[in-house]
Amino acid sequence: MPERRSPPTERVTQVLNLLAEHAGAPLPLAVIAERLDLSKPTCLGILTTLTETGFAHRTEGKTYRLGPALTRIGRAAEGSIAPLDVLVPFLHTLHKDLGLGCLLTTLRDGDLVVVGRVGAITVGGPRDLVGERFPAVPPLGLPELLWSSDQVVDSWLDQPPLLPVAARRSTLRRIVREARASGFLIERLTEAPAARNDVLADLVTSGMSEAVITTLRRYLPDVDWAEFTASVPEGTTDVGTIHAPVHDHHGNQRYTISVVASRRRVPARTCATWTRTIADRAREASAAIGGQSPWER
Hints:
Elements: H1 7-21, E1 27-28, H2 29-35, H3 40-52, E2 56-58, E3 63-66, H4 69-80, H5 83-98, E4 101-108, E5 111-118, E6 133-135, H6 150-157, H7 169-182, E7 185-188, H8 196-204, H9 210-217, E8 228-229, E9 236-247, E10 253-267, H10 268-288
Helix pairs in contact: 2-3, 5-10
């Protein structure tokens, strides 16, 4: 069947979208009509109907903003949309653009849970990873919560760590501040063991006895957060994984998109492309589920 469009409906949605873009500053009729290239009578008719039905509100100063009826619709939409159905296509886009494996993770009941994967993931071997859970205990889980509130980060840090922490809290707080500003976090490959956090995650979920796990943990290096940076280093970098947050409509970090590179001596220009791309896709993913990072407002 040929595609059918409704110009009157398009005009209504344009008005609602404009009011949403200026949620903190109600707009007068003349401004709305001018920005949408509508005649004042047409614009007034739309706004009057929206106001009568609760989708817009007319202030005492004769300006307009979104109305309370949209709250009910927003809650209903949030409950009917499966976020993973919306977010996984962004992983496919990243995989196509960068040619690297991508993961989608979240925090559930104190665990880091892998909920999506696209492409091959070299870290962790040939396992699918989707559905696997790892304890979100320092040093594990930092990328999944650093774009949350300071209270969330502090609660995570207050847990007894899986490995001794050799660095001051101020070191991690600096990384958190920088990552919130940049919108990404690079987890570099370090010296042997090449991916301490991945080795640790596999170890604590291996099913071996606690005594054996405790003994093996002693062979891993202390935590100094040196593997993390929120800026693109000059020259070349050994890149393990690059992370970026997906926020919900409350501004909470709900998911984390990670691109797994596991490559040595990555040129700064390539690394900059990767970080910019993943940060952009993560912002678009946040917008797709009605969210926005509180650190960018």
